[in-house]
Amino acid sequence: MNYPAIDPVALSLGPIQIYWYGLMYLVGIGGAWWLASLRLHRLDPQWNQDKLSDLVFWVALGVIAGGRLGYVLFYDLASYFNDPGLILQIWRGGMSFHGGLIGVLLAVWWFARRNGKPFFQLMDFVAPLVPIGLGAGRIGNFINAELWGRASDVPWAMVFPTDPLQLARHPSQLYQFALEGVALFVILWLYSSKPRPMMAVSGLFAVFYGIFRFLVEFVREPDAHIGYLAFGWLTMGQVLSLPMILLGAIMMLVAYQREGHKQ
After folding, report:
1. pLDDT (tens digit per residue) in 179-225
2. Secondary structure of the chain: what % helix, strand, coil (to 5)?
């Protein structure tokens, strides 16, 4: 199957080029903002749209700054050390989910302290919104023809124009869109639609994202400059996801134990 011819540039205005990858971030942030407004009264009946706008701004900043710096630190430090200007070229991809997560955690921690809210109360509110951005980002990866999967003979395998070997490969970006975007959103949105112990929603997010990412890594081509870290199959994405699964399970256990002690 041939990769559909998609120009990564969505719109050109003279010297200014607007990339689909950047637009996907706007879609993710805008979608999360809209969904958050539907549940804002559950977080705090006294909060208005201005307060929500502040929260979305800081979370978005954490995603972008943390995602870019995380990629630099975890995946390609040498290249960016040699040419620091590449760090600002986010339209070329190179965003790390795990770095973005750290950025979000720091942004929410700061915002929670500033507004007198428990950290995990805000994180439980934010967690079901994250898959919107994850799904949009994976569509951006697909349009950029980057982060493709390993060579395969499945009927839907694609030949990506950016692949120097021109092999038919798993469209792993679409797998991640389906799992990290659609499936994770449905799981978290339904689970959080009823009152849950504080920290449980955040824990469930960590568990399922970690599981989905770990599984997709088996068909996703590892970064060429990193390769496999151990056993001939363990990738950086899997190494970073394993602690998420463990930590998420512990968080849910602790959340329900605390809830049980209160009753």
Report:
1. 999 999 999 999 999 999 999 999 999 999 999 999 999 999 987 66
2. 65, 5, 25
> 80: which 2 tokens?
């960016």
- What is the domain partition of the chain in residue ranges? 9-262
Is 193 exposed, middle or buried (CB count within 10 Å of its CB: 0-12, 13-18, 19+)?
exposed
Count how many residues are written for the chain.
Answer: 263
Residue type for position 109: W
Mapping DSSP to helix (H, G, I), strand (E, B) and coil, where does residue 96 land? coil
* Tens-place pLDDT, residues 128-175: 999 999 999 999 999 999 889 999 999 999 999 999 999 999 999 999
Helix axis angle, 200-216 to 184-191, nearest 10°:
170
Give the whole-angstrom CA distance, residue 19 versus residue 32: 20
Burial class of residue 78 in the structure, from the number of CB atoms within 10 Å of its CB (0-12 exposed, 13-18 middle, 19+ buried): exposed
What is the C-alpha R_g of the chain?
19
Q: Tell me the pTM.
A: 0.87
Interior/surface letters 207-237, b for 16+ CB within 10 angstroms, e for the rest: bbbbbbbbebbebbbbeeeeeeeeeeeebbb
With beta carbons less than 8 A apart as the criterion, state whether 23 and 10 touch. Answer: yes
- Quote the crossing angle between the two packed helices 49-74 and 20-43, to the nearest 10°: 130
pLDDT of residue 84: 64
Is 68 annotated as contributing to ligand binding? no
Is residue 138 within 8 A of residue 181, CB to CB? The reply is yes
Q: What is the end-to-end Cα distance of the chain in Å, rounded?
A: 57
